[in-house]
Amino acid sequence: MRRINALFKNDAGLMALYDHADSLTAMQKMWAEICPDSLKPLTRAGALKQGTLTVYTDHGAVAAKIKLLLPSLMAKLQKRGIEVTAIRVQVQVKSEPPAKPKIHRKISAKGASELASLAGELEGSALGEVLARLARRT
After folding, report:
1. Which residues on adjacent β-strands are paired with residue 89?
2. Whole-angstrom Cα distance, residue 108 to residue 69?
3. Is 25 domain-assigned?
4. Is 109 domain-assigned?
5. pTM over 0.85
6. Shared-domain flag, residues 81 and 137
């Protein structure tokens, strides 16, 4: 670990990058403390430049909600000693929605037998065939 810290301290460019990452991490922690719980997973704090904090959101609806809460959020940040004069909200739409896990549903044995008997009554129709396939899957 000492070698990495020495590498950052010896290179001015890497030290500036390290300081910027450190300030972003501190601002994200502060944002997590003041942000409403329902909005935390949908927002991220960005850089604080010249008194303007940039907040990134995933949806336009979340951005609208944050804009409604701007006065109280700014007051909370100022109470914590952060000199914020404005909060800028930017929407960053995710390029790919997360894949939803496939839910495997099961039919009880009684339900399968009822489906099979109904499929027998509707034999020869498209609905009867679908019900028969569904009853066989269980």
Report:
1. 55
2. 49
3. yes
4. yes
5. no
6. no
H-helix or E-strand spanning residue 30: helix 12-34
Q: Which residues contact 126 (CB under 8 A, 6 or more apart)?
A: none
48 phi and psi angles, rounded to 5 deg: -105, 105
> Which structural domain range is residue 72 located in?
2-91
Per-residue b or e along 41-78, where b marks 16 or more CB atoms closer than 10 Å to that residue's CB: ebbbbbebeeeebbbbbeeeebbebbeeeeeebbebbe
- The pLDDT tens digits for 66-111 are 999 999 999 999 998 888 899 999 998 777 777 888 888 888 889 8
The domain total for the chain is: 2
Q: What is the pLDDT of residue 19?
A: 82
Is 124 in the same domain as 77?
A: no
72 three-state secondary structure = helix
